[in-house]
Amino acid sequence: MKLLGLIDRDDVSEKKNAGKIRLIDLIFPPHYDFYGMLCDQAEITAKGVQVLLDWLKTDDLGDPQTLVVIEEEADKMRYAMESKLLEAFVTPFDRQDIYSISRQMDYILNYSLSTALEMRAFGVRTDEAIVKMTETLNEGTTILAAAIDKMRFDKKAAESMIQEIRKREREIESMYIESMKHIFAINDPINVLKKREIYHHLKDAGRTLGITVDILHRIILGID
């Protein structure tokens, strides 16, 4: 019970303890769950590619607003993690790898969004090549999300998925080459340029998936 004119000793104790906590936080910043943050980003990346695939299958060149929102949300997640990287006293593995794998996943979504936005702007209709490349990218990002989720507790299971992701990257590259061979046979230079732009975004997304999985493999190999 507080008495008028007297200082409550519990209040003084609480203030002292609060001061100690703040001092400790300055010396030893809090640990952050970077595994969890990367899992969340991988999941939203896979979700974004699935949304692109769904959008392509409607073939109506409507506003890809859902994909825009997902890409913006993924950016916020990445920026928040980068901020925590600066504050973190320790990280579960090399902080440069945390930054790099996050950045590469972001590129996958960027290329996915550019595909939809440019198809709409240039009036490029969905074709079999675009759908197949996106389906393969979707498979790759889904496996990537599963591998990142597994690596904390079962690195062998995560490593077993690496070759499956790389297989998808190679398939996208092969599809790109085959698709370009067909469109170069078309006597319509403007349409060729438009299609090439879209195909190239998907090829770049596939290559970025490959870079992402290389970083992931390095992380997995370094986990004790």
Write the layout of secondary structure elements.
Elements: H1 9-27, H2 34-58, H3 65-87, H4 95-122, H5 128-150, H6 155-160, H7 162-183, H8 189-222
Helix pairs in contact: 2-3, 2-4, 2-5, 3-4, 4-8, 5-7, 5-8, 7-8
How many helix segments? Answer: 8
Number of domains: 1
CATH topology call: Methane Monooxygenase Hydroxylase, Chain G, domain 1
> SSE string, helix = H, strand = E?
HHHHHHHH
Biggest sheet overview: none
Structural class, please? mainly alpha
Query: How many DSSP E strands?
Result: 0
- Spans where pLDDT lies below 50 across 5 or more residues: 1-22
Distance N terminus to C terminus?
54 Å
Q: Percent helix among the residues?
A: over 70%
Strand content: under 5%
Structure description:
The protein is mostly helical and 224 residues long. The protein has one domain (33-222): Phosphate transport system protein phou homolog 2, domain 2 (Methane Monooxygenase Hydroxylase, Chain G, domain 1), CATH 1.20.58.220. Helices cover 80% and strands 0% of the residues. It has eight helices and no strands. The chain has helices at 9-27, 34-58, 65-87, 95-122, 128-150, 155-160, 162-183, 189-222. The protein starts with 8 loop residues before the first helix and ends with a helix. The relative contact order is 0.13. The model is unreliable at 1-22 (pLDDT under 50).
